[in-house]
Amino acid sequence: MSEMTRVVLDAMGGDNAPQAPVQAAVDAIRARTDIKVILVGQEEVVREELSKYEYPKEQIELVDAPEVIEMAEPPVLAIRRKKQSSIVVGLGLVKNGETDAFVSAGSTGAVLVGGQTIVGKIRGIQRAPLAPLIPTETGVSLLIDCGANVDARAEHLVQFAKMGSIYMKDVVGVKNPRVAIVNIGAEEEKGNALVKATLPLLKECTDINFVGCIESRDIPRGGADVIVCEAFVGNVILKLYEGLSSTLIGVIKQGLMSTLKSKIGAALALPALKKTIKSFDATEYGGAPLLGLNGLVVKTHGSAKAKEITNSIFQCVTFNQENINGKIKENIKDSQEEE
Amino acid sequence: MSEMTRVVLDAMGGDNAPQAPVQAAVDAIRARTDIKVILVGQEEVVREELSKYEYPKEQIELVDAPEVIEMAEPPVLAIRRKKQSSIVVGLGLVKNGETDAFVSAGSTGAVLVGGQTIVGKIRGIQRAPLAPLIPTETGVSLLIDCGANVDARAEHLVQFAKMGSIYMKDVVGVKNPRVAIVNIGAEEEKGNALVKATLPLLKECTDINFVGCIESRDIPRGGADVIVCEAFVGNVILKLYEGLSSTLIGVIKQGLMSTLKSKIGAALALPALKKTIKSFDATEYGGAPLLGLNGLVVKTHGSAKAKEITNSIFQCVTFNQENINGKIKENIKDSQEEE
Question: DSSP string covering A33-66, please?
């Protein structure tokens, strides 16, 4: 039997809590015997939701957390004040080493701040980047960093590139992942001060497959597997990706519904169309990992349904079994010795 | 009769030269009597192309420019060395005050560098931003700056906001345009150092309708009319817009062609769909103006067809008739007096 992975799940986080996280926990343990899920939240609420299901009792545990951090709360303050919230209690279980990972659909800010301050960074890691997978024509790419720590320095981006490469290879399963840095032209003389400072450092890295600069127009067609950028740019890319996809699909639906003839056409074409559009949906791959911490922290969409959360739990298992943090530590040690 | 606008057109620029620019010139003067087009390029080549058309001769003039700047040439070097190129000769005609505007589908870098060094900036303007119109669900928005001058300062962004607002109001015809700055959250405590420095300055501006921060996800739905950002971020937004639209439309076409049933549906739906997708196409509005220069410089897509170039010529006429540069100068003077 393979090693048991212990995943803490925020039962109160996201638009669909507690239903979606509780269902996700049950689905995950029904599918695999090597997972234990620790549901953290208001005990009575979670217990009642859980009572709707039949499941192997020894694989789910409940931990009480009477407080809830709301989406709109200022993150730093919320983490500091709500010690009994599902996010603070849940992250505490990872810090203590009692569990391997924490998954939440709750406040992104609170998860980011809590991850860094409660779980803490791996020794030698300067920043913990948030690295969502985004859909492309050919699969998915890892966009690293989309977090809240803006104004990064070149050495931060180099660490992002290395951690992203390890994740893409060993969790997502891409062989020899192509690593690129976001720039405003393929030519190296272009770019801002940060890109110009980072480029020579990335070229020196022998442990990643660095392929150079990528323009944002080439991201959707799958131009690289690991897309390195600082958090402001990453956030702009991620949110434009979501916004533009949704607007364009809306515009196309409107077009399909605009005439009687097109409506008949739409009815015939819809099943095939839905399938294709679904392939352009990254939630299949689970949530965004916050990398470089002493334990895995995964943030799913606030609107995550059970399936995305279940996939995030599986993602934690792969992360644990592939010993990603061990590999990151090894990599950081090597880099420091080289210096 | 209204004032004549004299537009210099690069007959050698872009993928479809000289056919597209020459046709665009003829279409423009056939449509309006208040335009004179000065075609700049290799005289023999342009004359031969022009001989295919019947048109009012007094409205088109030819100026010889034997050299051509290629797309891949380093811009600064190309502008310095190829004094007899269509871009350098054409921009020279604007600098001398002999003409009002210059339109080119040629090398973006060369047009940007040439615009700033040959035509020169309006006194008091610190940077000349490139400001393309991007399509949204409700119309178009002006994205300012998408140029090559990265690492901007707060006072640059304030000037972009003001120039963009004037352009959107008097050239595009949007009443009281909503001006927003790109940020990674609607909350003001979020953002990088540049956004945090710019926000208070924008709030103090009484001559624009500043509505606060915009997240990139809200750009496609038309969240603001003038989208202010520094050039690196603007370039990422612009190119991702183009890349993602094209990939998504490709994915949808693939979906429509995937089964026999969907193919029949697609055939029925296609005309309506094409019309809707076309409404999401900014080329209808002409090219991207390089603002803040002593004369208008407009960069169209490298792949521009005659229609986009003709629209760019009309754009120059509106710019001239609405005295946009006079308004920018007035605004800059007022700002300096306020200080």
Answer: SSEEEEEEE-HHHHHHHHTT----GGGEEEEE--
- Smallest CA–CA separation between A234 and chain B, in Å? 9
Q: Are B244 and A244 in contact (CB < 8 Å)?
A: yes
Q: Distance (Å, rounded) from C-alpha A127 to C-alpha A166? A: 16
Instruction: Tell me the residues of chain A between 94 and 153 that have a Cβ less than 8 Å away from chain B.
Output: 136-137, 148, 150-151
Q: At what angle do helices B324-338 and B306-321 cross, to 10 degrees?
A: 50
Nearest by CB to residue B150, choosing from A192, A270, A280, is A192
What angle, rounded to 10 degrees, do the helices at B19-31 and B306-321 form?
A: 50
**Residues 279..298 of A with a Cβ closer than 8 Å to B: which?**
279-280
pLDDT band at B286 (very low <50, low <70, confident <90, very high): confident
Q: Does A173 touch chain B if contact means CB atoms closer than 8 Å?
A: no
Which residues of chain B lie closer than 8 angstroms to A149, CB-CB? none
Structural contact between residues B300 and B290, judged by C-beta atoms closer than 8 angstroms = no
Q: Does A73 touch chain B (CB under 8 A)?
A: no
Residues 6 or more apart whose Cβ sits within 8 Å of residue A146: A129, A130, A131, A132, A231, A234, A235, A237, A238, A288
Q: Considering the entire predicted model, what is its pTM?
A: 0.92
From the list A30, A273, A158, A179, the residue with the least C-alpha distance to B259 is A273
Is 60 exceeded by the pLDDT of residue A1? Answer: no
DSSP-H helix ranges across A205-230? none
CA–CA distance, B228 with B234 (Å, rounded to integer)? 8
* pLDDT over 90, % of chain B: 76
> Would you call A240 and B237 a contact, using CB atoms and an 8 Å cutoff?
yes
**Per residue in B30-73, pLDDT tens?**
999 999 999 999 999 999 999 999 999 999 999 999 999 998 89
Strand stretches in chain B, DSSP E: 5-10, 35-41, 60-64, 101-104, 133-136, 139-144, 178-182, 209-214, 226-228, 288-290, 296-299
Mean local confidence (pLDDT), A295-311: 94
What is the distance between the alpha carbons of residues B262 and A271, in angstroms, rounded to a whole number? 8
Is B141 strand, coil or helix?
Answer: strand
ipTM computed for the complex: 0.91
Res A338: pLDDT:
61
Q: Please give the Cα distance from A142 to A318 (Å, whole number).
A: 16
Q: Which of A122-126, B72-76, B158-162, B313-317 has the lowest mean pLDDT?
A: B72-76
For residues A168, A170, A176, A179, the Cα torsion angle rounded to the nearest 10 degrees is 30
Tokens matching residue B258? 């995937």
What is the band of A333 on the pLDDT scale with cuts at 50, 70, 90?
A: confident
Interface test with B, best of A184, A198, A303 (most B CBs within 10 A): A184
Q: For residue B165, which of B131, B106, B208, B125 has the smallest C-alpha distance?
A: B208
Which residues does chain B have within 8 Å of residue A217's beta carbon, measured at their own beta carbons? 239-240, 242-243
| Residues of chain B found within 8 Å of residue A247, distances taken between Cβ atoms | 136-137, 220-221
CB count in 10 Å sphere of residue A42: 18
